Amino acid sequence: MTFFIPSARFFLRLLYRLIKWFLITMISLFLLFLLLDWIYPTRLPDTHHAQAIISESGDPLRFFATEDGIWRYQVSLDSLSPNYLEALLQYEDKHFYQHPGVNPLSLVRAVGQWVTTGRPVSGGSTLTMQVARLVKPMNRTVWGKAKQIFWALQLEWHHSKEEILTYYVNHAPFGGPIEGVEAASRAYFGYSADQLTDAQAALLTVLPQSPSRYRPDRYPERAQQARDKVILRMQEFGIWNEQTVNEALLEPVIAQNIKGVTYAPLLARRLHNQLQNQAVVKTFIDLGLQRNIEHSLATYVRSIDKHASAAIMVMDHQTGNVLAYAGSSDFLNDERFGHVDMIRSWRSPGSTLKPFIYGLAMDQGLIHSHSLLMDIPTRFGQYQPDNFDTGFNGPVSVATALYSSLNVPAVQILNELGPKTFYSRLHSSLVPIRLPKGNTPSLAIALGGAATTLEDLVSLYASLGNGGYTVQPRYYEQDKTVKRQLLTPETAWVIRQLLPGDSAFGHVQPAQHDWAWKTGTSYGYRDTWAVGVNSRWVIAVWVGRPDAVPIVGHYGSKTAVPLLKRVSGFLPQGEFVPPPKEVTQRDICWPSGKATEDAHNCDKQQKSWVVRGQIPPTLMLTGNQSNALDFAEIKLQIANDSGLRVPLECNVPSHSKIVDVWPTGVDLWIPIDWRKQAKIGEIDPRCAHIPSPPMYGHTVYIRGLWDNDRIRKHAITLSEPKIQVQAEGGIAPWHWFVNGKLLEEKGESLTLKNLTPGHYQLSVMDNSGASDKVEFTIEN
Question: Known catalytic residue: 351?
């Protein structure tokens, strides 16, 4: 028997044929792959990601799911915790960067285990194959596995390893509506996936294998068992040392409810609607400050009204960055209209615009800090303002008028400045105010007869701490800082000194205080405001009912200021700001308002802040429709021997004398010897035959009450007192005021009844502007 002994040539031919058929097979398979790839393309799809609104420190404020309800937040590989990527690649696919999408050895091992045990022990899936299943879900059958392999090869052909891995970490299921490791980390642990501990990294590595079974918020024991398996495997592979493994095994599985946290929800909603295509929106919110404010609001409003809400904004006026944004007291409380963002709602600002009326008037050279103003019953055309609750004070300085938020002086200054000028200056400074439909700017703006928003008030008050520049709020990183000059730096500094707070109230030395604030209360107690500013921050507070129902008895200083003070305590103290070079202090005289050396007589001396050396005289016009004479100064002829006034036509030796006189209407509040009649004096009897025009104006008196009367209930019947008074003299109609509030009655007589015990001021003003007042007390 002979044996065929292949020659070397035979082996070469065989090898050639094998290589040939192998190449033909591979080329055919490759061409088939290309054909199938062309017919049935598989690519990583562009998916919609949910949106995360985060704080300045990167902590989540609020998450917004995709349209299909999935929490999925885009994250790059370099922003993930290294220990997570290390555990993922070692545990799930250690040869990820070497294989073409399929690991043949893993597949053979998986098939062998299946045949040996009769059930699947390991899937043999690479991360690419898992991505293929995420892109195209399939049944767990042999045919499904074959398609998965093909799709994995397609993905490797068209995408880089980094793209495939990025898709996995952003789309892997982590239980419930959560997809992606970033969403899982924030939902379960409350922070970003770049801060994961080793134990948490191991848990999030294994969780996608069975996301419902291993959910740590529902099944912490199962989650821990699966996690520990990964940790021990990392030790087995020699990746983590013994100390790292032991510390990881000791860490308990603690996960929060996947609903997560919500801070600044109304700001988050606002930014979500504005920036829907931006996966992560980083704000300037200081999370610690935001938490404190939200907690303070929720507790504060409980003592006010069951439907009351409140809003607060805190802004760094140097940059415009908004550090806190609480648009309502409780976002989830429908009874308090928590879904209504009161930071953006148009409301009456009450008296909060007054500082800027005075400021613009000061910049125009109309007033200085202690100019003489008139807080008396006054009518400006058809507009007749009253005071909040305090009666009238007579002659007051700008400093007193602003500090006490008096109404009539503010209207007096706006009348001089011009409502249209004020309105246009605010608009040009990017601080709009909204007028009632069909109305033009009027004097009512001074007392809240317009509408603005809380964020616009923040922008406006920024000018008092920022050299006169209004600053638009910035809510997120891409926002630009926008400033517009409203006041000069000097005037802004002076106005801030005159506001309430820990201020020096216009005294010789500048205020060594941190905060200055202004309050406001809209008509009918519908809105209460407090806005505070220091050298760095602005705080604005609104308290009221979003449905505009009044909360009687609540006003700015009572309701909003305590909340403002509480919030200011959460912020660092500001810095002392010295007066600008162009701000000096000068002694001025009343009634002229001029510097002491320029006044003809000085009834009362004041020390005033003066800007750029401007010392304007007193604004003598009160706005009354009056034929009464009203002079800043009067030139008189005085008889040399008697000292009495003589007309020019009287042939009596005389000399000229100039006296500064007080404005008409303030006589009731000043000493007798300061009054115009006393200063002008009587006509010398030797000149009585010469006609002389009146120099005092009309006179009106209140009859039926004496000043400082004390009135009690009827001694026998205990009935409430009924007071009847009458105006004597003057020109009809007569306007009556009780504690500064204008009454509807315009007749010559008035009946007061149902007066509760307390102190009252009753004033009357006739059509010429002449007035009288009495003060009385109702006793128990």
Answer: yes
- In the block, tokens 């507009």 appear at 383
- Residue 445's Cβ-count burial label (10 Å; 0-12, 13-18, 19+) is buried
Integer Cα distance of 767 and 765 in angstroms: 7
Residues near 742 by Cβ (< 8 Å), separated by ≥ 6?
A: 384, 386, 735, 736
The CB-side HSE value for 577 (13 A sphere, CA atoms) comes to 23
Q: Are 626 and 661 in contact (CB under 8 A)?
A: no
Pairing verdict, β 709-711 and 771-778: parallel
The residues with which 261 forms a beta bridge, in sequence order, are: none
**Mean residue pLDDT across the chain:** 86
CB of 754 closer than 8 Å to CB of 364: no
Residue 92 is among the residues annotated as catalytic for this protein: yes
Q: Is 50 exceeded by the pLDDT of residue 504?
A: no
Say how far apart CA 659 and CA 673 lie, in whole Å: 13
Catalytic residue among 351, 369, 405, 763: 351
Give DSSP secondary structure letters for 189-206.
HSS-GGG--HHHHHHHHH
What is the β-pairing status of strands 394-397 and 469-471?
unpaired
Report pLDDT for 574: 82
H or E stretch at 170 = helix 161-171
Give the separation between CA 368 and CA 614, rounded to whole angstroms: 8
Distance CA 200, CA 189 (A): 9
Q: How far apart are CA 431 and CA 484, in angstroms?
A: 9
Confidence of residue 718 (pLDDT cuts 50, 70, 90): low
Is there a cis peptide before residue 591, judged by omega within 30 degrees of 0? yes
Measured distance CA(281)–CA(293) in Å, rounded: 22
Q: How far apart are CA 236 and CA 640, in angstroms?
A: 119
Q: From the centroid of its chain, how far is CA 483?
A: 16
Query: What pLDDT does residue 114 have?
Result: 55
SS3 of 455, please?
helix
* CA neighbours closer than 13 Å in the CB half-sphere of residue 651: 0
Which position among 81, 92, 329, 768 bears the catalytic label?
Answer: 92
Do 473 and 322 touch, CB atoms closer than 8 A?
Answer: yes
The counts of H helices and E strands in the chain are: 20, 26
In angstroms, rounded to a whole number, what is the distance separating the alpha carbons of residues 745 and 388?
A: 19
Structure token digits, residue 54: 């985060």
Residue 754's pLDDT band, with cuts at 50, 70 and 90, is confident
Whether 311 and 279 have beta carbons less than 8 Å apart is answered as: no
> Nearest 5°: phi and psi at 696?
-115, -20
Exposure letters 254-277 (e unless 16+ CB within 10 A, then b): ebeebebbebbbbbbbbbbeebee
Pairing of strands 309-316, 537-544: antiparallel
Rounded to whole angstroms, the Cα distance separating 58 from 579 reads 39
E-assigned strand segments in 456-582: 469-471, 483-485, 516-521, 527-533, 537-544
